[in-house]
Structures are given as C-alpha cells and as structure tokens.
Amino acid sequence: MAEITLIEAVRAAMWEEMERDPTVFTLGEDIGARGGVFLATEGFLEKFGEDRVIDTPLAEAAIGGIALGAAVNGMRPIAEIEFGDFIWPAVNQIIGEASRVRYGTQGRRTAPLVLRVPYGGGVRGGLFHSQSVEVAFAHQPGLKVVAPATPYDAKGLLKSAIRDDDPVIFFEHKRTYRLVKGDVPDGEYTVPIGVAEVKRPGSDVTVVSYGLVLHYCLEAAATLAGEGIDVEVVDLRTLRPLDTDTVLTSVRKTGKAMVVHEDTKAGGLGGEIAAVIAEYAFEDLDAPVVRVAGPEVPAMPFSPLLEAQFMPSPEKIAAAIRDLAAY
Amino acid sequence: MLGEQSSKTQGATSNVAGNGAGPPPLNDADLLDMYRTMVLSRTLDQRIWQMNRQGRAAIVASAQGHEAAQVGAIRALDPERDRFYIYYRELTTMLALGVTPLELLLGFLAKDGEPLSGARQFPLHGALDRSRRDIVSFSNVVATQLPQAVGVALADKMRGEKRVTVAYFGDGASSMGETHEAMNFASIHRLPVIFFCENNKYAISVPLSRQMNIESISSRAAAYGMPGIEVNGFDPVAVYEAVGAAANRALSGDGPTLVEAVVERFLPHTSDDDDTRYRPAEDLEGIRDLDPIPATEKLLRASGILDDALDQEIKESAQKTVNQATEDAENAPFPEPHDFYEQVYAPGSPGDQS
Question: CB within 8 A of A250, min separation 6: which ones?
Fold first, then answer.
C-alpha cells in the first residue's frame, strides 16, 4: 500500500496495462518526449517506444478517428485529449461514430477505446482551460463515461476502462491530479465501471457528486458533523451508465437529496439524477431535490475572485446542506 | 484502348508505384468479369431507383456513373486481404466484393437479414462480418471514415500485417477537416492507405467551382508529401492501374496515395434530391454518350472478347438475378424489434439492457 497522487494513479494504470497487453497503446498531443502536459505519460516513450506512444499533430478529430479505427481493428488505444476544452473537434468521431459502431453493426465491429480527458476548473484556466464537458458524453448511449475522484478509483477504473470492450470517456479533474492523494494497493486490482460508492455514510441528507467537488462535499460533511447533521456522500464514479440503485438506496434512507457538480446547473447531470430520484423515490422524499452547481455563465473566468465565484466550495455546499437539512 | 492516356500523376514523388511496380496486366477473363459486375450494378441500381419512385425503397444514393471507377479499384485490390472503408455511393464496390444483390436489396428495403446493420442503418451502411470481407461504413457523416481508415491501417502496421486500407470518399468530403487530418497523419507515418476519391463534381448541389479554387483534388497530395493520381473514372482499366500502383506503394511500406477518379453523377444526389433545381441540362448533355458501361461493351467487342450472344447472356443474367432478388427481398419480413436493445454495450457489460 502506498500513498500516491491521482496523476500517479493514472500513470500507473496505463503503464501496467501497456506492460500487460501489447494491443494497448497511447496517442495524443505532447505525450511523447514531453510526457503529456500533465505528465501522465512521463517515461512512456523511453519504456514503450514511439510505435506505442504516438505524438500526434494538433488534430483532435484525427485523434478520435484514428483511435476509433485502431480500436475497430483489434487494438486498445488510449487517446489523450490535452484539455477537455479542446475536445469538440473529436465529438463527431466519439459521440457521432464510436457510440454507434457496435449498435450500427449488430456487434460485428466494436470500439474498445479510451479517451482520457483532463477537465474542470479551479486551476486558473480561464474560459478555455476549465470546462466541464462530461455531460455531452454522458448523454450518449453507447458510450461509457467515468469520472473518478480518488487515486484508488482512478487506477482501478482506468484499468477497467482499458479492458472494456466499449468506448470509455475517462474524465480526470485537473485540480485533483496533484491535490488529491490516497492509498493504492501494490498489487493488481480493478474498480468496476457503473458502480457508485458511498464515500461517507450518513443518515440525514444524501449528497451525490463526482470529481473534484466530491472532496468539497466530504469537507462540508465533516464540518456539518460537528453541527449534528449527518451527511451521506455518494460518489457516482461512473456517469454513464448511472448507478441509480446506490443513489436511490441512499435517498430512501435519508429522505433528502442534493446533487453537487462543477458543471453548469441547467442541463447538467444533476437534472438527470434529480429526475431519477423524483421518478423512483418521490414517496421517500421529505424535501425537494437540491442542486449545487456551476452558474449560468459560458465558462469559468480567469481572475481569482471570478473563478471562485464560479466554483462550488465546501462553504457553499455546507450552506446548502444546512438549508436542506432544516427543510 | 482502355487505360491509355487516362491518368496523370501529381504530387511529391514522380514514382507513383514507390518500388516501381504497377499491377499485372488484366486478361480477357478479368475484363469480362468487370463488365459483368458493371452491368449487374447498373441493372440493380436502376431497379432500386424504380422501387423508390414506386414508394417501395425509402432512400437511394445511386452509383450510376461511378461503376467503372469502383470496379476498376476493387480489381486492383485483394478482397480477402484488404480493408474497405466505403461511403454511401458504393453499390458496385459492394457487388465486386461479393455482397449479393439480395443482401443489398434487403438493405434498400430495410428488411430482416440485411447483413451490414440488420437494417438499423441506411442502405450500404454498417459492417460485413469480418470472416467474409472487411467492409465498413459506419456513418452518413462525410469524411469520418478517413481518420478511421488511417487508424485501421495504423493497427495493421503496428502488428506487421501487410494489408491495404482503402478510404473511399467523394469530392464533397474532400472539403472536410478530417480529410486533411487523415491524409496528414497517414503520410507522416507512411501508412498503407489509399485515399480513393470519386469526384463526381457535385456536393449535392454545390459544383466543384464552389467547393475549391483548384482544378484537381489529387493535386492536394503534394501538400502531404504523397503522390496524387488523377484518373479517368470512366476507364476501369486506368483506375485499376492507378489503384494497383497505389496498393503496391502501400504494401512496400512507402505510404499512402491519393487517387482521384473523375466520374459523373448521372442521377441526383439521392432519390430525395431534385437536380433540375441546380444542375443545368447542358451539364449532362453528351456525358451519357461517354457512359462507361456501353463504352466498355464497345471496347470488349472491338477486342473480340465479347460478342452478341455473350453480351445478351450477361445482360439477361443480370436482369434475372435482380428480378429474383427483388422478389425475395420483397417477401422478406421487416426485422422485429426483439433485438432493439442489443449491442448498445457489450453483452453482460455495464449498461447492457439486452
């Protein structure tokens, strides 16, 4: 057991899978000699060579399409999109094409690719290096969408994603890369896709979250414990397919539900989760489902006070939980 | 003579074939077989168009005018070895690769047993079982197949497999950014890809002059450091030679080639289009006189390969095959939605609802 950062967990998962399976390779911008802008592939070029660690031109549509073609032809590519904000040219290949390969061929072709996507703000990234783009992909049947919050989950889920026979979009929150540390076993393990986890059990309020702000929810819960509010925190871990059972089980127990995400509120994943709760656990609710989410501005501004205005924080989350608990 | 004075080479290298090798000359049997496929394709195409006009087939993108280019290209390739990332106007390619008229008609009528997508997709889309042929057409979105084909070829190269991947596209798709990205990457990594452009001079209604300010799509190859060959797509032998040279280049590890077969679209973009709204009547005047099927017939007769009796047999056989396939396809049921939720995700994997 060792304590490592989330980026180290991502690196370890890829490293071990590339050692284990010769069909696994990685491609993306600056992933070779540079080791990736976040150093996710540091040392990979030296270890695995330029045939399996491919620096691409700045061309996200090609990264998506080439990964898709290689996947259809028996490989297991891991493509890195440098920043989530840059993913849009690849949308045609991923949402449009990769999601439909299996369905449109009745399973005669499949697309076992992983698209790794550093996303999210709180890193002084401004309007074009801070976006949360996960919901666009979570909307699309045929894709699997994963967003781990801890090093343990990141490593275990990335291994599952690489071994999965369907396209998996793997969202890594940039601020968690070095900020979040955690214990990871020395030996081999995986974490299943499609299974949420109760990261903190509680009895008064259910808070559903993922990614960086999951940690803010845990901080808020720790604060509120001192005030006599017992918060249960559910980490979705996978955004598609949603583990609605874990969410509903928790809500049926607490009777109060909140969803927290950094992504914009309207049309964000919180709306879907609130709808699932309303549809299947309405009789168990003691209060309306509440969302704490990003504001209705196009993206996260650059300057620190403006950025803070956008980001959910432990304080904002705690305040909203207090209101909900008192309902 | 077929194949003579029918192509010109542009681009970075003067040696189109890379190692200098062109394809072997075609014999009489090859030429007759190509003619047979062209006749069958035209007969089937006309039938499908007719069925659309009768309200029996929902949508058709006709290959009429593209037959010689498609049959010539396949003749230069190895259907068992190579991989075919086609687009929606590839009826002749499908036939030349061994997909049957009945299977194709099942697709056009959206009937059960359609072998590419189970009629989940438009006709000619999906993928054939790989044990038969590696034919793929995932999408109606133009040019997406180009980077995919490049990825397919990359995988073959990584495994050391000697195969050619052919990415088919039209002049319309040549304007897409993915076309540029695909060609650039393929050339950097010297991938065994043939970019096979069937230039019919219209992107639905937009003529070439409004698609590009250059004379020839193949001239773009120079910008990627690969050869570009412009070839008369009405001359099946010229296309055979161009694609054969490109295939040899790909197999020798010298990288991709852009082959532009200049053809004509005899019919509107699809059965939902009305080309009289944008295509001047004189545009097609005289072009039908160059129709590659009667032209090939004439040349085969002149060479003594074809006579009245054989030509009659070929045409009657095509008609009979298409008639039988039509009857069988019309009698086939529509697929029931019992497998509607299958193959969204891998069986048994998270999200699988089947």
Answer: A198, A206, A208, A232, A234, A257
